[in-house]
Write a structure and sequence with these properties.
Strand content: over 45%
Mean pLDDT: 68
Number of strands: 15
Number of helices: 1
Helix content: under 10%
Structural class: mainly beta
Order of helices and strands: EEEEEEEEHEEEEEEE
Number of domains: 2
Shape: flat
Length: about 220
């Protein structure tokens, strides 16, 4: 059965673990309202353990705030039999909580521990940085979110955006979880056909005529 799910959320990928390059799912500068929840994409160059393959185990997360710099350390246990030449990826959701309005720099560090090879040693091997602007959610922004909905969700073939307050919408964008723009569609009142998309989870951006974005 075909199943496509659209997410209304702020999705940030800080980086990729032990990859050839450190990449972001979304642009290096983002704008959020007060509460910060983000997802990290961690990619291993091998599978760990027998199928189903174990993508490491996150055993610790620490954060500190120095001025307007937020520093995160993510710790992964990667002990086990490794099959080189293959790869494995995992998503982890981090809820930082409420931030005061202002400009911030978020620095994420990836650390790994292989207790079989190095029982007492943890290695830091990757990092990434993202700039964040935090603003208060205004009553207008809250109203905009509350007046928009989509149905059905999950979707089989088509969906429709319900615009209760007749907001001026210019277009909608559908992104996959790697940050790739899949489809950009001028807005109208008709159903939107996504039957050509593979099964999966996608992020929907609704862009108004004044350039504001509801995710």
């Amino acid at each position: 059965m075909k199943k496509i799910t659209l997410l209304f959320l702020v999705l940030i990928s800080i980086g990729q673990i032990r990859a050839q390059q450190i990449t972001n799912t979304f642009p290096d500068s983002i704008h959020i309202q007060t509460n910060m929840e983000f997802e990290i994409l961690t990619t291993f160059p091998w599978n760990v353990g027998p199928p189903p393959h174990f993508c490491g185990d996150i055993f610790g997360v620490s954060d500190s705030l120095i001025g307007n710099t937020i520093i995160y350390d993510f710790y992964f246990e990667i002990s086990g039999v490794k099959s080189f030449g293959s790869s494995c990826a995992r998503w982890d959701t981090i809820n930082h909580g409420v931030l005061s309005p202002g400009n911030y720099t978020l620095i994420g560090f990836w650390n790994y521990r292989d207790s079989i090879v190095s029982p007492d040693t943890t290695f830091r091997y990757a990092s990434d940085t993202i700039s964040i602007y935090v603003s208060n959610t205004t009553s207008i922004e809250k109203k905009a979110r509350n007046s928009l909905s989509i149905s059905p969700n999950p979707i089989k073939y088509k969906f429709k955006i319900w615009n209760k307050d007749d907001q001026r919408i210019e277009k909608i964008e559908i992104w996959d979880l790697t940050g790739k723009l899949i489809k950009s569609i001028p807005y109208d009142l008709n159903e939107i056909d996504v039957s050509i998309l593979p099964n999966g989870i996608y992020v929907l951006k609704i862009i108004s005529t004044d350039g504001s974005i509801t995710i």
